[in-house]
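Q&A log
Question type: sequence-to-structure
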Amino acid sequence: MNDDGRDRFLAKYNVSRETTAQLDVYAALLHKWNPAINLVSNSTLKDIWSRHFCDSAQVLNLAPDTGGSWVDIGTGGGFPGMVVALLANASDIRWKFTFVESDRRKATFLRTVSRETRTPVTVAAERAETLAPQNADVLSARALAPLSTLLGYAQRHLKPKGRALFLKGESYQKEIDQALETWSFQSQKYISSTSEKAVVLSLGDIKRV
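Response status: OK
Response body:
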């Protein structure tokens, strides 16, 4: 479980001893629960630190430094939300995390990680499109839906000045072009730290046209 990616991750993000222990608990729970509820692809289970943890952690550095309400939709096994929450707890910026996960088994897993790592989060076992508007400062998602769909969630759940942080794969430009047919938004693209073909999109001023 302590693969090479673990040491690189801990060094890259200057992780404290306490947070390291929490991340180790989280990684162990992923290995324990994954055979039953498929939290991550079995082929990537051995790469939790270098793939899933590192991919998720980069989102925190792109968030505003004001803190506030952070809503992660389609959290699944905790990506990016749980990784961000664990790292954010060690910072001076205060965030209140809500994870939106409609699969009740995965929601139970997230609550278990929260309890075992003593990381306070709220888990809503609902769908993002029917959940009451969250008035969030940040909305994040990873590998959940096309950008056009995600923008609908962002419009529903973000504050007027809030930011959406979406991790996207190599087809991101096609998704942006398609989204611009029905949406207007201000965007910034950041090359992913785990793949030069992927990006994190930071979006604001989201409006339907």
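Response note: The chain has a mean pLDDT of 95.
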